[in-house]
Amino acid sequence: AIGNAKTTRNDNSSRFGKYIEIGFDNRYRIIGANMRTYLLEKSRVVFQADEERNYHIFYQLCASALLPEFKNLRLSSANDFLYTRQGRSPVIEGVDDAKELGTTRHAFTLLGKTHICINESYQIGLFQVLAAILHLGNVEIKDRDSDSSLIAPNNRHLTAFCELVGVTYQDMSHWLCHRKLKTATETYIKPLPRLQATNARDALSKHIYAKLFSWIVEHVNKALVTNVKQHSFIGVLDIYGFETFEINSFEQFCINYANEKLQQQFNMHVFKLEQEEYMKEQIPWTLIDFYDNQPCINLIEAKMGILDLLDEECKVQSQSKKHGTSFYIKPGEYFKVFVDKV
């Protein structure tokens, strides 16, 4: 519910990677497990493409907004919140989000039967943070002038956010529209234009969600820990969803690059090095043929590869022959042109 979402390819796609280690005793019975996660798709929290959804948990909460214990969350339909309506596909056919929330809460209760609890109190606190993220996305930031912005007094969504996370309205409305700059000798408070303030608001939402996700994983691991001595283990690597579209976003490019690196690491240790040991020890073995993706990795990360060239182009000032004015190339725009050429 908290790590999976609907994409154009899959109604229940895992939007993070994980490595799970399952421990066994000397009689090969499962005694515990541990999970490490990476590459959580934080951008999905604040934006979804057409026909996609944010993480399932947000829709489950909105579908259960009328439950008495959720009254103070001030939630309503998923279509009422920016962070859940951008994909224009808030419902998955055949899925009852309100019922799914019951399943999610039951999963937390199962963990609560161990010595490390995600009990009812923790769950309500967790749902308050999730609801606060939805409200934060609906906070409208307006132009004060070309270089500064403001949030109107008594914005109901910011009020709800502040009440749910326990901060003051005055502080939040100020710091969403300003940034602090420190030099060796002085500290400056700089106002932000509306676009930068909106980006800062979304960055805060993503950061809160990532921290919440890590907290849940930490508690799951504590619930699965064992005092029994581990004799052996099985490691399972579940890489991030690899998708290729007609036009890939820069984020998708980075995801796919990370997957290529993971796959190469796997190939190196499981195929290359292991088979070399077999050959040295003259163990009868049928060599496994596999695709070596190192040339693809080199294209991306080698000297003067894609990442180097992107980094260089984002720093270099160019001249517009047409208008005779100087400008800086935006990384996303340059990346699209570069990929098209490649």
Give a summary of the structure in a few sentences:
This protein is of the alpha+beta class.
End-to-end gap:
38 Å
Structure summary, number of beta strands: 11
Number of helical regions = 12
Average pLDDT figure: 87
The strand order across the widest sheet is 4-3-9
The amount of beta strand, in percent, is 5-15%
Order of helices and strands: EEEEHHHHHEEHHEEHEHHHEEH
As residue ranges, the low-confidence spans are 318-335
Shape: globular
The percent of residues in helical segments reads 40-55%
Which structural category do the helix and sheet elements fall into? alpha+beta
Major β-sheet annotation = 3 strands, antiparallel
Backbone CA Rg: 24 Å
Descriptive tags:
342 residues, alpha+beta, 3-stranded antiparallel sheet, two-stranded antiparallel sheet, 12 helices, globular
